[in-house]
Amino acid sequence: MASALSEKLSRIVKEMRGQARITEANVADMMREVRLALLEADVALPVVRDFVARVKEKALGQEVVGSLTPGQVLVSVVNRELAATMGQGVADINLAAQPPAVILMAGLQGAGKTTTTAKLAKHLIEKRKKKVLTVSGDVYRPAAIEQLKTVTKQAGAEWFPSTPDQKPVDIAHAALDYARKRHFDVLLVDTAGRLAIDEALMLEIKQLHATLNPVETLFVVDAMQGQDAINTAKAFKEALPLTGIILTKMDGDSRGGAALSVRAITGAPIKFAGVSEKIDGLEVFDAERHAGRILG
Ligand code: GDP
After folding, report:
1. Residue pLDDT, tens place only, 238-275
2. 246: Cβ below 6 Å to ligand 1?
3. Rounded distance, CA 120 to CA 118, Å?
4. Is 112 annotated as ligand-binding?
5. Which residues does GTP bind (predicted)?
6. How confident is the model at residue 6 (pLDDT cuts 50, 70, 90)?
């Protein structure tokens, strides 16, 4: 990952050659650049502050041993902390439940929930060989139900009908019942979003969660939301026991700082990244690779 460090960081590392100890000045120089790199990547300010404070504390206690330079030791502290915040490796979808394994999709309107529900259906069909049913609990926007129907068809999954006059909890019961009887492996539940967080929305999704007892509760968030992603993430984390995150629209966000922000706030692993509007535009998220990209 060290190769992915920005030019500025590399310069600082070079300047620190030949010193036997890490000084406060070394740490301050390095942290100034790390802070800038994270802010340029649009990582939320409170997350940047916490991160820098943690690295500072750890770096000052470090000894420089063997053939290492203070700069190299500092870089490894930064990288270790980044990996600890970001998570390591990849985290796949958990389907360890009595079938149907229920996956609840949560997030704001426009985040990409419906598109991602279909992308995930396709992934589970193709990569995990599962029989997948989708259903929409968005009774406020008939167009959203129709949209899910269309994209589910593209994914090669089956769609369970719902109508705007139903209660989301009743839709959930009916879909669950159907999925059990027809031996579906997975039930993907798309939910209503709002343009901003509101209490009614949170109450409704909590009720859905209690009804469905999902094995995965995935928070779908637009990577382009940048600094705002943190408030949305906080609200959803408070309402639901999130098991994973899907970051959408990563194709439009060059540095991907939202990943670090959302991960730091929720503590939940980022499982997938949406990389296009198309049905196959979903990639398994590689935390380490992404961590390198954030520091640019
Ligand atoms: P929902 O309201 O959360 O269900 O959001 P939608 O699934 O309707 O998506 C909102 C818009 O974002 C649509 O125009 C999607 O095509 C687009 N979208 C979703 N995911 C991605 C992505 O990963 N990349 C890009 N470029 N567009 C996306």
Report:
1. 999 999 999 999 998 767 889 999 999 999 999 999 99
2. no
3. 5
4. yes
5. 107-114, 190-194, 248-251
6. low
